[in-house]
Design brief:
The chain has about 120 residues and is α+β, with helices and mostly antiparallel strands. The protein is built from four helices and four strands, in the order βαβαααββ.
């Protein structure tokens, strides 16, 4: 199956279990892989025959920046469900959420989740 990749999308959101996370916010990074048949788009060279990744970006940005979740699992589920609902060409989606400023005392790059959902 072919895929479209949106990599390292950065947003500022208000997600977390602690009240401070919901009040102060923090950075989140999102990767999305959209699995679909891209042959028609490749042959036609017409955006109407593909998944418009700018529109997927806008949907993701709206969810991350304008909704609040306690868990990044719920954030990932919401993104996956909305993309599958709004973009009929997507057969499968892989969403990765990275939270580099989690309130954990230690040295780390990030904490994250990855979910895969199919139609």
């Amino acid at each position: 199956m072919d895929k479209i990749i949106l990599k390292n999308l950065g947003f500022y959101g208000y997600h977390g279990v602690l009240p401070e996370e919901n009040r102060l916010g923090q950075k989140f990074f999102v990767d999305i892989e959209l699995y679909a048949d891209l042959k028609t788009a490749g042959n036609s060279d017409d955006v109407k025959d593909t998944i418009n990744y700018a529109e997927v970006y806008d949907v993701t940005k709206d969810i991350v920046e304008n909704q609040t979740f306690q868990l990044i699992e719920a954030l990932a589920e919401t993104i996956a469900a909305k993309v599958l609902k709004d973009f009929s060409r997507v057969n499968e989606i892989l969403v990765t959420i990275r939270k580099p400023e989690a309130p954990v005392n230690g040295i780390y790059d990030y904490f994250g989740v990855e979910i895969r959902r199919k139609r």
